[in-house]
Structures are given as structure tokens and as C-alpha cells.
Amino acid sequence: MAELIDGKNVAEDVVRRVKALTAELLGKGALKPGLAVVIVGEDPASQVYVASKSRTAKECGFHSVQHTLPAETSEQELLDIIGELNADPAINGILVQLPLPSHIDAGKIIQTIAPQKDVDGFHFINVGKLGTGELETAFVPCTPAGSMLLIERVRGKDLSGLNAVVVGRSNIVGKPMANLLLAANCTVTIAHSRTKDLAALARTADILVAAVGRPEMVRGDWVKSGATVIDVGINRIAAPEKGEGKTRLVGDVAYAEAATMAGAITPVPGGVGPMTIAMLMANTLASAYLAAG
Ligand code: GUN
What we know:
Blueprint: E1 3-4, H1 7-27, E2 34-40, H2 44-59, E3 63-69, H3 75-87, E4 93-96, H4 106-112, H5 124-131, H6 142-155, E5 163-167, H7 174-183, E6 187-191, H8 198-202, E7 207-210, E8 228-231, E9 235-238, E10 247-250, H9 255-259, E11 264-265, H10 272-292
Parallel strand pairs: 1-11, 2-3, 2-4, 5-6, 5-7, 7-8, 8-11
Antiparallel strand pairs: 9-10
Helix pairs in contact: 1-10, 2-10, 6-7, 6-10
The chain binds guanine.
Guanine (GUN) binds next to strand 4 and helix 6.
């Protein structure tokens, strides 16, 4: 059976380290790292994520600000708030939770965030730095950055020459994940909904990353023996076995099947999910260090 990759544990390690470094920074008389999280509307999943981000920021000893805006907030109102946060020296990181209501142009909002405060790593400047291998000064999107840490925990830092298949081509996960694996000298293939014979392609992967948002799509016979499987999906599905109307969380990978083939695999929940928030804290701390010179 596969080794279970305990993302919760690794994330707690990261948060502990961020907390210690924050205390050290404050000891030098620098400003507290400041994180502003902005949420528009009432999407329940987004509310849970945002509350968790704000709570973890406080736990790290950060200055933590949350803007909770009604769904009818105009694009201009949101742009004005971002303008204020861009200009506020107490804020090092700005995160606008996605998705945004459809009357707001999410792309325009993201590109308005100052690149040096873009702790999500979604601004073109940071996307470009990652794409050109300028990893020293880029903010890397939190979910792929966290996934890389988990991969390095099981395979070590040298991933050179390994075959990596990333299933999913989103700007938030698939594309930055592929760029990180490429920067680590993997041979990378990005698969998507039009890919032919996905199962056969997946079976070539030493590192298989699933980020498509389709419950249990990756089956056990898609997994090469000994592969490292990273499941980015978080899908809520009906669980009639738990009682009427009950639900449960599953990933994009059929865990029980895949675990019989994989060398190591992330569970859902408790795998990649906790890493996303931990890496947001790490990015915010890095931003505060840069601002402090
Ligand atoms: N919605 C889902 N994932 C993310 C993320 O990583 N950042 C933001 N801002 N919104 C999200």
C-alpha cells in the first residue's frame, strides 16, 4: 500500500516556521506582516476558506484584515478597496477570494493588485516570473507551491528526469504546477478534457497531479506502480451510506484504488488542502521581508 502524504502535518510545520520567523522579524522592530483577505458575496465554501485564512494569519502573529463585501458590490468599489490596500504600508499581502460575482471582471481585479503584494501569484508579473524560471522573486500560487513541498517530502529535492503528468490546465493550479515541475527538471505533460487516452498517458507518470474538479476521475489502473499521486480536487458528493441527505468530501482520484498502486498519495481531506493556506502565510511573510528590505 502507498505511503500516505500527511499534508495537515506538513502544513502545521510550515505555519510553525512562519510563526517563529514572524516573531524574529518583530524582534528586529519591523512591521508585523499584514494580510488582507477580500471576499465578495456569500458562497459558503469561499466563506469557510476565507475564515480559515484569516484565522491562520492571526495564529502566525500577522496583522490580519478581512473585507467581507455584499454580492452586489460594484467593480469600482472593489477596485477602490484594492487601491487602498495597495497603498497601505501595514498590508504586505492582498488576496481576493475567487470566484467573484459575474458582474465583476476577475481578471481586471487581479491585475490591479500590486505585484509585490500579490501573494496568490496570479498577477501577470508573477505568472511571467514563474514561466521564465525567476523563482527567487516570484510569488508562486499557493496550491501548486504546497503540492511541490509535498512531492519533495517523498521524492527529495532532485526530481530531475522524472515524468510528471498534470491533469488540468487552470491558471490557479494546472499551469503553475506544470511550470514548477518543469523548473525542477521533470519532463512535464499537461493533460486536459481534450487529451486522447488520458489513462495511458497517466500511466507514464512518476508524478501524477490531478486538478480537474471531477470526483474520483483518476482510477487505480491509471496509476503507475510506485508513482507519487497528488490529489488537488476537493469535491462534495452525496453519501447515502451515511444517511439521507448526507455528503462527503472526495478528491479527483479514486483514493482506495489508487493507493494500491501508488508509492505515495495525498488523502482528501488532509492532503493538499491544508498546504494552500500554509503557503499563503509563507508568501505573506516573504512579502513582509521584501518590504522590510
Ligand atoms: N479560490 C479557490 N482557490 C483560490 C486561491 O488559491 N486563491 C484565491 N484567491 N481564490 C481561490
